[in-house]
Specification:
By secondary structure, the protein is mainly alpha-helical. The protein has one domain. 71% of the residues lie in helices and 3% in strands. The chain contains 14 helices and 4 strands. A two-stranded antiparallel sheet has the order 1-4. The protein has a two-stranded antiparallel sheet with strand order 2-3. α7 packs parallel to α8 and α11 crosses α14. The two termini are 17 Å apart.
Length: 312
Protein backbone atom coordinates (compact mmCIF):
# COMPACT_ATOMS: atom_id res chain seq x y z
CA UNK A 1 0.00 0.00 0.00
CA UNK A 2 1.34 3.43 -0.97
CA UNK A 3 1.19 6.33 1.52
CA UNK A 4 -1.64 8.73 0.58
CA UNK A 5 0.69 11.70 0.18
CA UNK A 6 2.46 9.88 -2.66
CA UNK A 7 -0.82 9.83 -4.60
CA UNK A 8 -1.53 13.46 -3.72
CA UNK A 9 1.96 14.52 -4.81
CA UNK A 10 1.60 12.63 -8.09
CA UNK A 11 -1.80 14.22 -8.79
CA UNK A 12 -0.50 17.73 -8.15
CA UNK A 13 2.74 17.25 -10.11
CA UNK A 14 1.00 15.67 -13.11
CA UNK A 15 -1.61 18.43 -13.18
CA UNK A 16 1.15 21.05 -13.28
CA UNK A 17 3.59 19.53 -15.77
CA UNK A 18 1.85 16.55 -17.40
CA UNK A 19 4.24 14.69 -19.70
CA UNK A 20 6.25 17.58 -21.17
CA UNK A 21 6.38 17.83 -24.97
CA UNK A 22 10.15 18.34 -24.79
CA UNK A 23 10.47 14.93 -23.12
CA UNK A 24 7.92 13.35 -25.46
CA UNK A 25 10.08 14.24 -28.46
CA UNK A 26 12.94 12.13 -27.14
CA UNK A 27 11.19 9.56 -24.95
CA UNK A 28 7.70 8.41 -25.99
CA UNK A 29 5.26 8.08 -23.11
CA UNK A 30 5.72 4.68 -21.39
CA UNK A 31 2.09 3.73 -22.15
CA UNK A 32 3.13 3.56 -25.81
CA UNK A 33 5.75 0.98 -24.83
CA UNK A 34 3.01 -1.18 -23.33
CA UNK A 35 0.96 -0.66 -26.47
CA UNK A 36 3.82 -1.91 -28.65
CA UNK A 37 4.30 -4.99 -26.47
CA UNK A 38 0.58 -5.78 -26.65
CA UNK A 39 0.58 -5.31 -30.42
CA UNK A 40 3.56 -7.67 -30.83
CA UNK A 41 1.89 -10.37 -28.71
CA UNK A 42 -1.41 -9.95 -30.53
CA UNK A 43 0.17 -10.30 -33.98
CA UNK A 44 2.35 -13.24 -32.89
CA UNK A 45 -0.15 -15.22 -30.82
CA UNK A 46 -3.63 -14.32 -32.01
CA UNK A 47 -3.82 -16.74 -34.93
CA UNK A 48 -7.42 -16.59 -36.14
CA UNK A 49 -7.05 -20.01 -37.79
CA UNK A 50 -6.83 -21.89 -34.48
CA UNK A 51 -9.69 -22.75 -32.12
CA UNK A 52 -11.16 -20.00 -29.94
CA UNK A 53 -10.41 -21.81 -26.68
CA UNK A 54 -6.71 -21.94 -27.58
CA UNK A 55 -6.75 -18.26 -28.53
CA UNK A 56 -8.43 -17.44 -25.22
CA UNK A 57 -5.72 -19.36 -23.35
CA UNK A 58 -3.02 -17.48 -25.27
CA UNK A 59 -4.72 -14.22 -24.36
CA UNK A 60 -4.71 -15.18 -20.68
CA UNK A 61 -1.01 -16.06 -20.79
CA UNK A 62 -0.21 -12.83 -22.66
CA UNK A 63 -2.03 -10.76 -20.05
CA UNK A 64 -0.25 -12.54 -17.18
CA UNK A 65 3.13 -11.87 -18.80
CA UNK A 66 2.29 -8.20 -19.38
CA UNK A 67 1.04 -7.77 -15.80
CA UNK A 68 4.11 -9.49 -14.37
CA UNK A 69 6.45 -7.29 -16.42
CA UNK A 70 4.57 -4.15 -15.37
CA UNK A 71 4.51 -5.17 -11.71
CA UNK A 72 8.21 -6.04 -11.69
CA UNK A 73 9.08 -2.72 -13.31
CA UNK A 74 7.00 -0.88 -10.71
CA UNK A 75 8.66 -2.77 -7.85
CA UNK A 76 12.11 -2.07 -9.28
CA UNK A 77 11.46 1.66 -9.58
CA UNK A 78 9.84 1.82 -6.15
CA UNK A 79 12.90 0.24 -4.54
CA UNK A 80 15.57 1.84 -6.70
CA UNK A 81 16.48 4.54 -4.19
CA UNK A 82 17.30 4.54 -0.50
CA UNK A 83 14.34 5.44 1.73
CA UNK A 84 14.02 9.14 2.33
CA UNK A 85 12.82 12.36 0.77
CA UNK A 86 14.51 11.75 -2.60
CA UNK A 87 12.96 8.28 -2.74
CA UNK A 88 9.49 9.76 -2.18
CA UNK A 89 10.03 12.43 -4.85
CA UNK A 90 11.22 9.79 -7.32
CA UNK A 91 8.18 7.58 -6.67
CA UNK A 92 5.88 10.59 -7.11
CA UNK A 93 7.56 11.41 -10.42
CA UNK A 94 7.23 7.81 -11.66
CA UNK A 95 3.60 7.71 -10.53
CA UNK A 96 2.73 10.66 -12.76
CA UNK A 97 3.39 8.37 -15.73
CA UNK A 98 0.17 6.52 -14.92
CA UNK A 99 -2.02 9.62 -14.65
CA UNK A 100 -3.74 11.63 -17.40
CA UNK A 101 -5.40 14.60 -15.67
CA UNK A 102 -3.66 17.27 -17.70
CA UNK A 103 -3.61 15.49 -21.06
CA UNK A 104 -7.30 14.62 -20.76
CA UNK A 105 -8.19 18.24 -20.03
CA UNK A 106 -6.00 19.49 -22.87
CA UNK A 107 -7.43 17.02 -25.41
CA UNK A 108 -11.03 17.90 -24.56
CA UNK A 109 -10.27 21.64 -24.45
CA UNK A 110 -8.81 21.21 -27.95
CA UNK A 111 -12.29 20.13 -29.07
CA UNK A 112 -14.08 22.93 -27.22
CA UNK A 113 -11.94 25.74 -28.70
CA UNK A 114 -12.80 25.21 -32.40
CA UNK A 115 -16.40 24.32 -31.52
CA UNK A 116 -16.88 27.71 -29.87
CA UNK A 117 -15.66 29.37 -33.07
CA UNK A 118 -17.95 27.30 -35.30
CA UNK A 119 -14.98 25.42 -36.78
CA UNK A 120 -16.55 21.98 -37.07
CA UNK A 121 -13.74 20.50 -39.16
CA UNK A 122 -11.16 21.50 -36.56
CA UNK A 123 -13.35 20.05 -33.80
CA UNK A 124 -13.76 16.79 -35.76
CA UNK A 125 -9.99 16.45 -36.09
CA UNK A 126 -9.56 17.08 -32.34
CA UNK A 127 -12.32 14.74 -31.21
CA UNK A 128 -11.03 11.94 -33.46
CA UNK A 129 -7.94 11.87 -31.24
CA UNK A 130 -9.96 10.83 -28.18
CA UNK A 131 -12.86 8.70 -29.51
CA UNK A 132 -13.08 5.62 -31.70
CA UNK A 133 -16.34 6.42 -33.46
CA UNK A 134 -16.71 7.87 -36.95
CA UNK A 135 -16.55 11.65 -36.61
CA UNK A 136 -16.86 12.84 -40.21
CA UNK A 137 -20.61 13.43 -40.08
CA UNK A 138 -20.95 14.68 -36.51
CA UNK A 139 -22.56 18.09 -36.08
CA UNK A 140 -21.71 20.53 -33.29
CA UNK A 141 -23.97 18.81 -30.78
CA UNK A 142 -22.63 15.38 -31.72
CA UNK A 143 -19.06 16.57 -31.30
CA UNK A 144 -19.84 18.03 -27.89
CA UNK A 145 -21.53 14.79 -26.82
CA UNK A 146 -18.63 12.63 -28.03
CA UNK A 147 -16.09 14.76 -26.16
CA UNK A 148 -18.18 14.79 -22.97
CA UNK A 149 -18.61 11.01 -23.02
CA UNK A 150 -14.87 10.55 -23.48
CA UNK A 151 -14.16 13.06 -20.71
CA UNK A 152 -16.40 11.25 -18.24
CA UNK A 153 -15.21 7.76 -19.12
CA UNK A 154 -11.53 8.74 -19.18
CA UNK A 155 -11.85 10.51 -15.83
CA UNK A 156 -12.14 7.02 -14.42
CA UNK A 157 -9.64 5.20 -16.66
CA UNK A 158 -7.03 7.94 -16.69
CA UNK A 159 -7.35 9.51 -13.25
CA UNK A 160 -9.47 7.82 -10.59
CA UNK A 161 -8.61 4.17 -11.23
CA UNK A 162 -4.84 4.80 -11.50
CA UNK A 163 -4.92 6.68 -8.17
CA UNK A 164 -6.98 3.88 -6.59
CA UNK A 165 -4.49 1.21 -7.64
CA UNK A 166 -1.52 3.39 -6.69
CA UNK A 167 -2.97 3.66 -3.19
CA UNK A 168 -3.71 -0.07 -3.04
CA UNK A 169 -0.55 -1.45 -4.60
CA UNK A 170 2.02 1.32 -5.00
CA UNK A 171 3.83 1.63 -8.34
CA UNK A 172 3.38 -2.10 -9.11
CA UNK A 173 -0.39 -1.78 -8.68
CA UNK A 174 -0.50 1.37 -10.79
CA UNK A 175 1.60 -0.08 -13.62
CA UNK A 176 -0.36 -3.35 -13.65
CA UNK A 177 -3.61 -1.41 -13.93
CA UNK A 178 -2.26 0.74 -16.79
CA UNK A 179 -1.06 -2.22 -18.85
CA UNK A 180 -4.35 -4.07 -18.36
CA UNK A 181 -6.39 -0.98 -19.22
CA UNK A 182 -4.24 -0.42 -22.31
CA UNK A 183 -4.69 -4.06 -23.33
CA UNK A 184 -8.45 -3.73 -22.93
CA UNK A 185 -8.54 -0.65 -25.16
CA UNK A 186 -6.51 -2.45 -27.86
CA UNK A 187 -7.80 -6.03 -27.84
CA UNK A 188 -10.73 -6.22 -25.41
CA UNK A 189 -13.34 -6.06 -28.18
CA UNK A 190 -16.24 -8.29 -29.26
CA UNK A 191 -15.31 -8.41 -32.95
CA UNK A 192 -14.36 -11.94 -34.12
CA UNK A 193 -10.64 -11.19 -34.34
CA UNK A 194 -10.32 -10.14 -30.68
CA UNK A 195 -13.25 -11.77 -28.90
CA UNK A 196 -11.27 -14.81 -27.68
CA UNK A 197 -7.74 -13.43 -27.42
CA UNK A 198 -8.88 -10.23 -25.71
CA UNK A 199 -11.36 -11.91 -23.34
CA UNK A 200 -8.97 -11.91 -20.38
CA UNK A 201 -8.02 -8.26 -20.90
CA UNK A 202 -11.66 -7.15 -21.06
CA UNK A 203 -12.81 -9.15 -18.03
CA UNK A 204 -9.80 -8.19 -15.89
CA UNK A 205 -10.23 -4.52 -16.77
CA UNK A 206 -13.91 -4.75 -15.80
CA UNK A 207 -12.92 -6.20 -12.42
CA UNK A 208 -10.21 -3.63 -11.73
CA UNK A 209 -12.57 -0.75 -12.52
CA UNK A 210 -15.57 -1.91 -10.47
CA UNK A 211 -14.83 0.28 -7.44
CA UNK A 212 -13.02 3.19 -9.18
CA UNK A 213 -15.81 3.75 -11.72
CA UNK A 214 -18.36 4.22 -8.98
CA UNK A 215 -16.03 6.59 -7.15
CA UNK A 216 -15.55 8.52 -10.42
CA UNK A 217 -19.29 8.80 -10.92
CA UNK A 218 -19.78 10.01 -7.37
CA UNK A 219 -17.03 12.64 -7.73
CA UNK A 220 -18.59 13.96 -10.96
CA UNK A 221 -22.01 14.19 -9.32
CA UNK A 222 -20.47 15.88 -6.29
CA UNK A 223 -18.53 18.35 -8.43
CA UNK A 224 -21.55 19.06 -10.61
CA UNK A 225 -23.92 19.66 -7.72
CA UNK A 226 -26.26 16.96 -9.00
CA UNK A 227 -26.52 13.92 -11.23
CA UNK A 228 -26.95 11.35 -8.50
CA UNK A 229 -30.47 10.35 -9.57
CA UNK A 230 -29.49 9.90 -13.21
CA UNK A 231 -26.34 8.01 -12.25
CA UNK A 232 -28.16 5.49 -10.08
CA UNK A 233 -31.05 5.16 -12.53
CA UNK A 234 -29.11 4.89 -15.79
CA UNK A 235 -25.60 3.55 -15.07
CA UNK A 236 -26.66 -0.09 -15.40
CA UNK A 237 -27.98 0.53 -18.93
CA UNK A 238 -24.45 0.56 -20.31
CA UNK A 239 -23.08 -2.65 -21.83
CA UNK A 240 -19.99 -2.15 -19.65
CA UNK A 241 -20.45 -2.73 -15.91
CA UNK A 242 -18.40 0.42 -15.26
CA UNK A 243 -18.52 3.01 -18.05
CA UNK A 244 -22.13 3.94 -17.35
CA UNK A 245 -21.35 5.36 -13.90
CA UNK A 246 -19.25 8.41 -14.84
CA UNK A 247 -21.12 8.96 -18.13
CA UNK A 248 -24.56 8.92 -16.48
CA UNK A 249 -23.27 11.15 -13.69
CA UNK A 250 -21.97 13.68 -16.23
CA UNK A 251 -25.29 13.64 -18.10
CA UNK A 252 -27.19 14.23 -14.87
CA UNK A 253 -24.83 16.93 -13.62
CA UNK A 254 -25.16 18.88 -16.88
CA UNK A 255 -28.88 18.21 -17.33
CA UNK A 256 -28.30 16.77 -20.83
CA UNK A 257 -28.58 13.37 -22.49
CA UNK A 258 -25.52 11.39 -23.52
CA UNK A 259 -25.15 8.09 -25.32
CA UNK A 260 -27.60 7.00 -27.99
CA UNK A 261 -26.90 5.57 -31.46
CA UNK A 262 -23.47 6.19 -32.97
CA UNK A 263 -21.38 4.95 -35.88
CA UNK A 264 -18.21 2.85 -35.65
CA UNK A 265 -16.47 1.75 -38.86
CA UNK A 266 -19.53 2.79 -40.92
CA UNK A 267 -21.83 0.58 -38.82
CA UNK A 268 -24.50 2.15 -36.60
CA UNK A 269 -24.52 0.85 -33.03
CA UNK A 270 -27.47 1.34 -30.71
CA UNK A 271 -26.42 2.55 -27.29
CA UNK A 272 -28.49 3.41 -24.22
CA UNK A 273 -29.30 7.03 -23.48
CA UNK A 274 -28.19 8.54 -20.18
CA UNK A 275 -30.26 11.39 -18.79
CA UNK A 276 -33.47 12.92 -20.10
CA UNK A 277 -32.34 16.41 -21.11
CA UNK A 278 -31.61 17.81 -24.54
CA UNK A 279 -28.49 16.85 -26.48
CA UNK A 280 -25.46 18.80 -25.24
CA UNK A 281 -24.56 22.06 -26.92
CA UNK A 282 -20.98 23.28 -27.48
CA UNK A 283 -21.14 25.45 -24.34
CA UNK A 284 -22.01 22.34 -22.31
CA UNK A 285 -18.57 21.02 -23.16
CA UNK A 286 -16.96 23.92 -21.27
CA UNK A 287 -19.31 23.27 -18.36
CA UNK A 288 -18.27 19.63 -18.46
CA UNK A 289 -14.60 20.62 -18.29
CA UNK A 290 -15.32 22.78 -15.26
CA UNK A 291 -17.05 19.86 -13.55
CA UNK A 292 -14.10 17.65 -14.46
CA UNK A 293 -11.61 20.05 -12.87
CA UNK A 294 -13.68 20.30 -9.70
CA UNK A 295 -13.97 16.51 -9.59
CA UNK A 296 -10.18 16.27 -9.83
CA UNK A 297 -9.88 18.64 -6.87
CA UNK A 298 -12.33 16.53 -4.87
CA UNK A 299 -10.16 13.53 -5.75
CA UNK A 300 -7.10 15.36 -4.45
CA UNK A 301 -8.94 15.77 -1.16
CA UNK A 302 -9.23 12.01 -0.60
CA UNK A 303 -5.46 11.29 -0.28
CA UNK A 304 -5.03 14.65 1.49
CA UNK A 305 -7.40 13.53 4.24
CA UNK A 306 -5.93 10.03 4.11
CA UNK A 307 -2.42 11.44 4.52
CA UNK A 308 -3.48 13.46 7.56
CA UNK A 309 -5.00 10.36 9.16
CA UNK A 310 -1.91 8.32 8.18
CA UNK A 311 0.39 10.75 9.99
CA UNK A 312 -1.79 10.63 13.09
Amino acid sequence: MSPPWIALGALVLEAVVGYPAAVQRFIPHPVTWAGRAIAVLEVSWNNTKIAEDRRKLRGIVALILLALAAGLLGALLENLFAPGLFDAIAVIAFATLGLAQRSLHDHVAAVAAPLEKGNLEGARVAVARIVGRDTGQLDADGLAAAALESLADSFNDGVVAPVFWLLIGGLPGLFIYKVINTADSMIGHMEPRWRAFGWAAARTDDLMNLIPARIAGGLIALAGGGGWRVMFADAAKHASPNAGWPEAAMAGALGVSLGGPTVYDSVTHDRPVFGSGARPRPDDLRRGLQIYMRACLWLWGLPAVGGFLWLR
